[in-house]
Write a structure and sequence with these properties.
eight-stranded antiparallel beta barrel; Porin; mainly beta
């Protein structure tokens, strides 16, 4: 049976561009305006262009499509891409609309599958790891994640 080992935590600050309803659902673009990550093995900040192109369907779930660049404290760059699924509950909408009460991990379905790429030998171990993230939404708006490595 696989084991989940906590690998890192991070947050991303967001700004919203609401595209609106389209043929596949309601499109929202959450631009990443900053963020930080840390673990026992690395720490740093989220830099450059990055966003979550969220598509909210009539089933009450949002399909995440995210790209971001992590820069470690020792100047390595890590490209991070993930898809995910978030249950759009009234509490999530309240926080995204400016509410002050965050969701908590496990309050609603919010999972991702981060994939990392780097050419830096110090972090090359990330290139061959399967990761699973669990998220929550906090005022800002901001998303926070716990990311777990899948191990044998």
């Amino acid at each position: 049976m696989p084991e989940l080992i906590e690998e890192l935590t991070y947050y991303a600050d967001l700004s919203l561009d609401e595209v609106g309803p389209g043929p596949c659902g309601a499109r929202m673009i959450f631009n990443v305006t900053g963020g930080e990550f840390h673990s026992d093995r690395m720490k740093g900040e989220i830099i450059g262009a990055g966003a979550d192109w969220l598509l909210v369907g009539p089933d009450g779930y949002g399909r995440l499509d995210v790209r971001a660049t992590f820069k470690t404290h020792d100047d390595a760059l890590i490209y991070v891409q993930y898809y995910g699924l978030i249950e759009i509950t009234p509490q999530v909408m309240e926080v995204l609309g400016g509410g002050s009460i965050p969701t908590d991990f496990g309050d609603h379905y919010f999972f991702t599958n981060p994939r990392c790429e780097t050419g830096d030998d110090r972090y090359a171990w990330l290139n061959q790891k399967m990761l699973i993230g669990q998220g929550r939404v906090v005022p800002g708006p901001r998303v926070e994640y716990k990311v777990f490595r899948v191990a044998n």
